[in-house]
UDP-glucose 6-dehydrogenase
Amino acid sequence: MFLQQTLPLTSDSRSIDLRDSWFTETNRNAEDLLHWSWIRGGTHNGSDSIEMPQHSSGGGGHFCPPYHRLEQRHSPDLRARPRRCADIVFVSVNTPTKTRGLGAGKAADLTYWESAARMIADVSKSDKIVVEKSTVPVKTAEAIEKILTHNSKGINFQILSNPEFLAEGTAIQDLFHPDRVLIGGRETPGGQKAIQTLKSVYAHWVPEENIITTNLWSAELSKLAANAFLAQRISSVNAMSALCEATGANVYQVAYAVGKDTRIGPKFLNASVGFGGSCFQKDILNLVYICECNGLPEVAEYWKQVIKINDYQKSRFVNRVVASMFNTVSNKKIAILGFAFKKDTGDTRETPAIDVCKGLLGDKACVSIYDPQVTEDQIQRDLTLNKFDWDHPIHLQPMSPTAVKQVAVVWDAYEATKGAHAICILTEWDEFKSLDYQRIYDNMQKPAFVFDGRNVVDLEKLREIGFIVYSIGKPLDAWLKDMPAIA
Ligand SMILES: NC(=O)C1=CN([C@@H]2O[C@H](COP(=O)(O)OP(=O)(O)OC[C@H]3O[C@@H](n4cnc5c(N)ncnc54)[C@H](O)[C@@H]3O)[C@@H](O)[C@H]2O)C=CC1
Ligand SMILES: O=C(O)[C@H]1O[C@H](OP(=O)(O)OP(=O)(O)OC[C@H]2O[C@@H](n3ccc(=O)[nH]c3=O)[C@H](O)[C@@H]2O)[C@H](O)[C@@H](O)[C@@H]1O
């Protein structure tokens, strides 16, 4: 999720849904809302809450973060007071992958952005800076400009690109201490003035040297590039993990040695069952589409490979499970520990667990899933929804997907593993490191397997207990070597 749907606003913990407040109040007087508005709504995980950033030097003037504005406007005492119109509008609506029509399966669907832009044009009564917070294809600002100016009634709109770089689970930390804030604008006096206005907002808590200003297209493209580079690192280390398994090298040791080179650095080199989350795949597909549209098929092919390796890593994992268990998991109970796309979030968007579970179910396994934060309802939806449908509003999704019968969702790792033939660890939740694996082993069918897709368990300890253990990119058990996984 991006900034959260509900922000604790008052001492009695009353929360406000920004989307609902937006729509409700739009009917009354939308212009009143547009002082420091943040256009976005629901979220897939509401676990982060927001606290006021500490003011720092720079910027000048009194800084009032957006949720304080919201608190004011929702306070009954203040409702009657005259309110200023918005100067800056942040738009952070979803930009999913198109599911049909031109560019389906690759291009970004800008329906939501366009409707937000039309709404802004419709209700505005004074000049505005409209900020692209959503991740959008390069050149989107040009389209938005056209919508706004053609409906402007003489109002001046400046579009800025101010992409968001926060990661889930560390959203608040990333908001307060970003590596950088990026602001792109038109290279005109009006565009430059708008950049300075937004810069002065961030300067209240971000050191000035960490605020980068560029032209619009560089800012838009930098966001796609940053996500592509991050995902590429994971696909690179995951590609190495396959080679490690084939050769007896240990991917952890390889990544450590490689990452010690200061030019490469140690972060984002954890081999895994594959990257997930709402953005990496979507943004790379979008990048690929943009390259194709710009007549750059070789560049498109290069970035496509990052996704291909990610898909390969997930299917390689499934093949490993099935091959190790005598080439069939039919009617075998497989415990899935972790369903979220990473720890410390309940978000399941594009989680590798979906593909792994679907793969196992395709081989007729019975899966028993435990995740500390993901509900049964969510899991059933994820296992039945079509690709990319999850990123569209719920009313555009299938009404009541049929529950997958061979799937049980339980609220305890011990329950999930009871009587199971194998365990697949698909999210790196800390609690999976300290489970009582002897107890788990005692209650499982034998031979008992652990397939660790996140490298969280103590391999040697589990092997001592009696498990046959597979850990991504680590030297293989003799058992696994004898049962090669052929895709
Ligand atoms: N999730 C994350 O951690 C990050 C997301 N982003 C980008 O931020 C954007 C939003 O992502 P999420 O927050 O994850 O998506 P989301 O799907 O959780 O939230 C977007 C919300 O916007 C609402 N919305 C759509 N059209 C609207 C309109 N016209 N007016 C008001 N609300 C409207 C939707 O109902 C939805 O609730 C995407 O472009 C994403 O790529 C960027 C960095 C991090
Ligand atoms: O545009 C976005 O939405 C955001 O996408 C990512 O953030 P996020 O998806 O929340 O989470 P990450 O920590 O990047 O993890 C993404 C996936 O990669 C996996 N991963 C990450 C790191 C690693 O070394 N190995 C690995 O497999 C994670 O388990 C997870 O499935 C980026 O890190 C953010 O900078 C960006 O703003």
Notes: The radius of gyration is 24 Å. The first helix runs from residue 18 to 33.
